[in-house]
Task: structure prediction
Amino acid sequence: MSTLLTRTQVCQLLGVSPKSLYLWERDGRIPSPRRDRRNWRVYSPQNVAAIRKFLGPEHLGEREPASGRRRSPRADRLSARNQLTGTITAVRRGGLLCEVVLRLGDGQEVASVITGASADRLGLRKGREATAVIKATEVMILR
Result:
């Protein structure tokens, strides 16, 4: 990697969102990249290395799923930007529906209820990697 990368390219390379890069930069967690003549952020190889170091050991190389295959290009064309990749820890079936639990890299878990047919079609099994795509119209907080 000898050329400068755009924010979008860095996000795709490392599997992070543009908002995350912005927040980490704002909070001083990663170095601020330089700006081009349009005042857009451009990332040098040193910037990318610093972000990888901040993210930890799993991001030292290019991000690839545990299966060795790259994520489907269709995932990059979704309007939903909240994509959380993790390892399936449970697939609980109950009639027509199935609960799938993903453990994220930081130990948090995300659960989704889908049809059993969808779980079968996707080949969801405990120990496999999967991505939760979250598109919410509402967020409720209860106290």
About this structure: The longest strand covers residues 82-94. The chain has a mean pLDDT of 82. The two ends are 48 Å apart (CA to CA). Residues 36 and 53 are 24 Å apart (CA to CA).
